[in-house]
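pinging the channel bc i need a second pair of eyes. not urgent but kinda urgent?? the chain im working w is below, pasted from the shared doc
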Amino acid sequence: MTTRPAQTETLVFPDAHTMAREVAHWVTERAREAVRERGTFYWALSGGSTPRPVYSHLAEPPLRDTVDWSRVHVFFGDERFVPPTSSESNYGMARESLLSHIPVPERSVYRVETESVTPERAAELYEETLRRAFNVSAGVIPMFDVILLGLGPDGHTASLFPGSEGLSERDKLIVANYVESMKTWRISFTYPLINAARRVSFLVQGSDKAERVSEVMSGKSDLPASGIHPADGKLLWFLDERAASGLNARPKEV
């Protein structure tokens, strides 16, 4: 994978706390912009530990009060195939840190149904849910306003892991991936859906991610995260200093 997005911005922050605060501010700006221009903010959350403090900032005043949450639609870029009450659930983490603290309508929070279905069926149902929410038919790719992504030490993003079948999917918007290294199923957005977004943002912290950040940003890597290049949108990298330590040309720090 050698394609680089036409519009890429990299922001480096001195520490994880500062980064989380600034990402939260950025999300509220994008939400207000989307509501002002299009009436609705379509947002896909990321799981893992990095975005949790971002969500916590958004859940508290004054930021919480700067967004018209009745106009926000919340999705999940990936989900572990576990019950929503599990400590491993991305939905559960988001509910605890953000969703239970903001006045977003329950009907506007779209979680992956993982109960009493197979992983494959869960992916099918989530794609159907997504199409209904965006009111688009088969063959049309919905356009998210913001998709948040993480970056794993193995170069995975969302639940697109090295060697997983979802990497080659070009028709479906949602896939069920079996992750052999973890012996578990994941439900994930696919490249076509992610790359159709107006803005895609990587949130990366820690020195253990520095080498992968450098590889992916070189534009010459075959890691799953290298497949993220919005066709008509913008790609942003939010990094703390440790995650940015492997870059040859250091971006200006914020």
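so The beta strands are 8-13, 41-45, 72-76, 78-80, 146-149, 174-179, 184-189, 199-204, 234-240. and Confidence is low (pLDDT under 50) at residues 1-5. — does that match what u expected or am i reading it wrong
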